[in-house]
């Protein structure tokens, strides 16, 4: 009986050991998950600390940083000013086009009822906002007043002027091609003799606007290259000034990504703050020009006012400037950092 009791006690001992082993495995898996989350938290914390320390380093040398920020701000603000000017000219051109008229000359022998039916039909067209009928008598009276040949015109046996419909295109008709298509459609009416529209000035305006868009794009590309060179040269000087520090950090096992990170954030801050200063310069320029432009518009009895960038376009401008700074610093770091190795 004693032997059996002892055997049963020995046989019962492994059970707690297996349970303990299971607990240890569970604890080990818990430690592994904790280490992964800790690594992610440490990685994000290092990015946060590096970003703040890079900004503090720039603020520690305010004059040098301000000069670089101003160079970037001017390079970003110049194409932005031309872009805003182009947008305002396009808005002004749209207003001019909306007030333009299409002259529809009617056959002299057309009946008044047919002219009224054509006028109603054109008014029902979505591409036409108004249609004003000018009789031959009204046209002759206006011509005699404007030309100064009133006495000579009184000697005419017959009125040579035809009936005219003055049409105003809708705002949706926003291109010369659409106006030409509308004029061609009207010319197919049976009682229409001819359709005239002054397209030359409008085509010139659109060509000038297209040329302006390409000029702004070319200027933006050239100045973006200037931003890359300015940021890259500044980062190169920063790398050279911290060469000894980089060598020591690499000797203790730091990777190139670890060493590169502060310089990338420095380029980002150069571009971001430079973009914000560019918006400030743009706002000052618009404020300075808004009053004389408003006075000029009032002389022409127009309500035109200068319009700046909206919030979304301003955000894209700052984002583009930040990316340019980041890309410029990445180019400089990739070129010079790998040349610094401990010996």
Order of helices and strands: HHHEHEHHEHEHHHH
- What form results from the Cα inertia axes? elongated
Question: How many structural domains can be distinguished in the coordinates?
Answer: 2
- Largest beta sheet: strand ordering: 2-3-1-4
Count of helix runs: 11
Number of strands: 4
Main structural class = alpha+beta
Radius of gyration from the CA trace?
A: 38 Å
- Uncertain segments are 1-32
Overall mean pLDDT stands at 80
Question: What's the helical proportion of residues?
Answer: over 70%
Q: Give a quick account of the main beta sheet: strands, pairing sense, barrel closure.
A: 4 strands, antiparallel
Distance between the termini: 78 Å
Fraction in beta strands: 5-15%
Question: Brief description of this entry?
Answer:
With 343 residues, the protein is of the alpha+beta class. It has 11 helices and 4 strands. Helix 8 (200-241) packs across helix 11 (311-336) and helix 10 (256-299) runs antiparallel to helix 11.
């Amino acid at each position: 009986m004693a032997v059996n009791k002892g055997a049963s006690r020995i046989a019962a001992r492994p059970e707690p050991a297996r349970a303990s082993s299971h607990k240890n495995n569970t604890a080990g898996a818990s430690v592994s998950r904790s280490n992964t989350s800790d690594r992610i938290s440490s990685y994000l914390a290092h990015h946060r600390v590096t970003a703040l320390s890079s900004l503090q380093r720039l603020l520690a040398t305010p004059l040098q940083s301000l000069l670089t920020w101003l160079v970037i701000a001017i390079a970003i603000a110049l194409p932005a000013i031309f872009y805003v000017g182009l947008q305002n000219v396009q808005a002004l051109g749209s207003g001019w086009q909306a007030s333009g008229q299409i002259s529809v000359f009617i056959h002299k022998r057309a009946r008044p009822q047919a002219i009224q039916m054509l006028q109603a039909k054109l008014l029902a067209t979505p591409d036409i906002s108004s249609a004003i009928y000018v009789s031959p008598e009204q046209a002759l009276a206006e011509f005699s007043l404007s030309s100064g040949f009133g006495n000579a015109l009184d000697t005419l046996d017959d009125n040579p002027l035809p009936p005219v419909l003055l049409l105003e295109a809708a705002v949706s008709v926003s291109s010369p091609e659409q106006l030409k298509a509308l004029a061609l459609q009207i010319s197919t009416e049976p009682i229409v003799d001819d359709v005239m529209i002054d397209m030359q000035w409008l085509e010139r305006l659109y060509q000038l606007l297209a040329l302006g868009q390409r000029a702004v794009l070319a200027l933006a590309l050239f100045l973006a290259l200037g931003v890359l060179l300015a940021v890259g040269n500044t980062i190169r000087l920063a790398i050279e000034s911290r060469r000894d520090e980089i060598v020591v950090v690499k000797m203790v096992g730091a990777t190139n990504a670890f060493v590169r990170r502060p310089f990338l954030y420095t380029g980002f801050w150069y571009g971001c703050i430079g973009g914000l200063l560019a918006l400030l310069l743009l706002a000052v320029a618009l404020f300075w020009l808004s009053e004389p432009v408003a006075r000029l518009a009032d002389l022409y009895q127009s309500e035109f006012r200068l319009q700046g960038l909206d919030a979304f376009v301003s955000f894209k401008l700052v984002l583009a400037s930040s990316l340019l700074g980041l890309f410029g610093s990445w180019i400089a770091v990739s070129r010079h950092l790998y040349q610094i190795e401990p010996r």
